[in-house]
Automatic annotation (TrEMBL):
Pfam families: 2OG-FeII_Oxy (PF03171), DIOX_N (PF14226)
Entry keyword Metal-binding: yes
Organism encoding this protein: Hondaea fermentalgiana
Protein name (database record): 1-aminocyclopropane-1-carboxylate oxidase-like 2
Domain Fe2OG dioxygenase: start-end pairs: 213-318
Family, per entry: Belongs to the iron/ascorbate-dependent oxidoreductase family.
Source organism phylogeny: Eukaryota, Sar, Stramenopiles, Bigyra, Labyrinthulomycetes
């Protein structure tokens, strides 16, 4: 099995860390909480501290109905169990990033210094397993903002038509779209609260993230390792998110399969799901806008040894033409300012060397 071929040192370190964590789960440091039942001004104060320290935080009282969340995860579980449906909407048939991507088809986000796959790929004896360990053991469905082909900022990588299974829309398309719209509204509120937290007028980010938003959603499945022990196969390799904010929802296990780099000491810090909460993180674009007052933190996720893990990552992006000029903080670092769309395409092609940004504005 995969985990057997993985680097033993890395695996032992991971195994030890998780075992320790479950033994002292209560003592483990947890992410801060932003409670959205409070006023925007009060929530802004919580967000300011959390985004400045970790770039990651829990969000409670977020307003997304429980049945909408459950509807999306139920639809996802049956989608990922259906090989025929997945095959029919494989990304390779779309010429874009929309649709289905299978296990070991993605990996390497240009963060190799923080990526333990480096150890794994040099230590394994079995070539095939080594090659797999270098890639993400995840499958996903991706969709996002669509624009007409004759729109001034249209390009295939960011705005092409979504591709959906050819089944009854109530089975998959509708529950996923309803969830998307709910979290999109939540992302508006979080952008307002973020603006307040930085001392900007509340609509500053929303105004620049609503016409042609480079927003998308990654719906992920991390299959279990089935080794009976905590493994080190990476589900998604070390990366930062490109956009403004990510709203992450996790299901299938309460173990902390997500890890973030703790800014104080550079150590990996496990993050467990928290009942009733989303995990929200700052992406590269909001970090730039904030002149690094907010952090865009490197993170990764592992497969669980026994459980199927599912997550939905909603990425709220800015408009293609938005200027990412820092408004506060370290303004010098990001001058002259970059255009959000061009920046996004550069990051996408860096992480996916085969992708060509045809039709880009
Ligand atoms: O599944 C997770 O916990 C993380 C997903 C993630 O980081 C992403 O899709 O960008
Ligand atoms: Fe991410």
């Amino acid at each position: 099995m995969l985990a057997k071929a993985a680097g033993t040192a890395a695996r032992r370190a991971r195994h030890g860390a998780l075992r320790q964590l479950s033994a002292s789960a209560k003592a483990a440091e947890a992410l801060p909480l932003v409670d959205l039942s409070r006023s925007d001004e009060e929530a802004a104060e919580e967000l300011r501290v959390a985004a400045g320290r970790f770039g990651f935080f829990y969000v409670s009282n977020h307003g997304v109905p429980r049945e909408v969340e459950e509807g999306a995860f139920t639809a996802l579980a049956s989608f990922f169990a259906n090989e025929e449906v997945k095959g029919s909407i494989h990304q390779s048939k779309t010429g874009s990033f929309r649709g289905y991507v299978g296990p070991f088809e993605q990996g390497d986000y240009g963060m190799d210094d923080t990526d333990l796959r480096k150890d794994q790929t040099t230590q394994g004896a079995d070539k095939e397993a080594e090659a797999k360990a270098a890639m993400d053991y995840k499958e996903l469905f991706h969709f996002g903002t669509e624009l007409p082909r004759d729109h001034a900022v249209y390009n295939d990588l960011l705005y092409c038509d979504n591709i959906w299974p050819n089944n009854d829309p109530s089975v998959f398309r509708e529950p996923m779209s309803v969830y998307y719209e709910e979290v999109r509204q939540l992302s508006d509120r979080l952008l307002r609260v973020s603006a307040l937290a930085l001392g900007l007028e509340p609509e500053f980010f929303v105004r620049q993230a609503s016409e042609t938003p480079m927003t998308s959603m990654n719906c992920l499945h991390y299959p279990p390792l089935e080794t009976g022990e905590l493994g080190s196969q990476i589900g998604i390799g070390a990366h930062t998110d490109f956009e403004c904010l990510t709203i992450l929802n996790m299901r299938g296990t309460n173990d902390p399969c997500l890890e973030i780099i703790r800014p104080e000491d550079g150590a990996w810090m496990p993050v467990a799901p928290r009942e009733g909460c989303f995990v929200v993180n700052v992406g590269d674009m909001l970090a730039r806008w904030s002149g690094d007052t907010f952090r865009s933190t490197v993170h990764r996720a592992f497969n669980h040894p026994r459980d199927h893990r599912y997550s939905i990552a909603f990425f709220r992006g800015p408009d293609f033409d938005a200027s990412l000029a820092p408004q506060v903080g370290n303004k010098e670092k990001y001058m002259p300012p970059v255009n959000a769309g061009k920046h996004m395409l550069a990051r996408i092609t860096q992480a996916n060397p085969g992708a060509v940004a045809a039709d880009s504005a």
